[in-house]
C-alpha cells in the first residue's frame, strides 16, 4: 500500500503564495472566490477515480456484534427497547395465594433484592474507606496522561510552527525572486517597446529618404528633357561654338608637326 501511495502521481499543482500574495482581505474577494468554487463544482464532471490507488474501505472493521445489531435496528427503524425494572420489583404472587410455587418465586425474588441492597451498602462502605485514595490514584494517572498529551500537543504545535516558518521563508524567497523577475520582465518589455518605436521611426525616415532620392532623380531628368525639347536653336549655337573652338587646335597641331621628307 505504501508503495502504491508513493508511486501515485499527484497532478494538482498548488501555486498560491499566501504569505506574499495581497488582496485576500479586500471587499468582495472572498465572495468572488466562493462563487468561482461553486461554479466549478457545478460544472465539473470527474472522469477519473482519484482513490483507485487505495484499497476498498472496510467500514465494519471495528464493529462488534452488539454494534452490528444496533446498526441493523437503526436501519430498520425499530424502536429501542426500554430498560426493564422488573428485577427490582417485589410483586406478590399473581396466580393465587394458595399456590406454593408462586410464593417460592416471590421469596426468591425478595432474597435477590435483599442481596442486591446488601451489596450496595457494602460498596458504599468500601467507597468511604478506600474511595478517597482510589480517586487520588486515578487523578494522578489522569494528570500524568494529561501532561503527556500536553507535551505531545506542544511538540505537534512546534512542528506545525516549523512547517509554517519554513513555508513562509520559502515563499518569501520565492516572492523576492518573482518580484525581481517581474521587474526584469517589465524592463525588457519597456526596452522592446522603445526598440519598436525606434524601428518604426527609422522606417519612417528611410521611407522619407527614399522618397526624396526618387524625387531628386526624377527632377534632373525632367529638366534635361525640357532643355532638349524646348530650345533647339540654342543647342545648335552651342554645338557650332564648340566646333570652332576645336578647329584652331587642329591647325596648331598641323603647324607643329615636322615636314614629311
Automatic annotation (TrEMBL):
Keyword Nucleus: yes
Keywords (A to Z) from UniProt: mRNA processing, mRNA splicing, Nucleus, Spliceosome
GO annotations of cellular component type: catalytic step 2 spliceosome; precatalytic spliceosome; Prp19 complex
Spans annotated as Disordered: 218-261
Biological process, per Gene Ontology: mRNA processing; RNA splicing
InterPro entries associated with the record: SPF27
Name recorded for this polypeptide: Pre-mRNA-splicing factor SPF27
